[in-house]
Write a structure and sequence with these properties.
By secondary structure, the protein is mostly beta strands. It is 10% helix and 48% strand. A hairpin with a 2-residue loop joins β5 and β6.
Length: 177
Amino acid sequence: MKISNIVSAAAIFLLLWCMACEENPFDPNKWSTLSHEGFVLKWRVQDSNLEVELKGPSTGWIAVGFAGSYGMHDSNIIIGYVNGSSVSIRDDFGIDSDTHVSDTDLQGGEQNVSGKSGSEDSGVTTIFFTIPLDSGDLYDNALSEGQSYNIVLACAADGADNFASGYTTITNTSIKI
């Protein structure tokens, strides 16, 4: 058997295998995924935006903070909860290691979250949202594709469907955008 026949057969096999896969490994829109201490974070860059899905182990609020210095401090925090059919998601800023406030409560801050949706199922809250990689907002850290960033993941107690309850779980890790 000629080398060219072997290469052709291998290429056809690879193509058929990829077509049978649920996700195309060559798809530029493929999501990156992190599972960490009960949270699942999925993200992908779409044009100049970051699309995000966050699942957290609570029926209260869940949150992810991007590019902070430690804990919540200096993080661009996206926090959300689901109450019945209502989904609330807000753009916050970490003013210290365990406190955050809405960007609009800070002088010059803006809400820069779009594409908001969410659900609750079997004790897990899921929120979906889109943020600009660089909103220009003083309280949103600019993100760049290909760079690594510290993130914070947090959630409140079950039923804490508000932005004011304290967290029951908080953890830090990092991701590459």
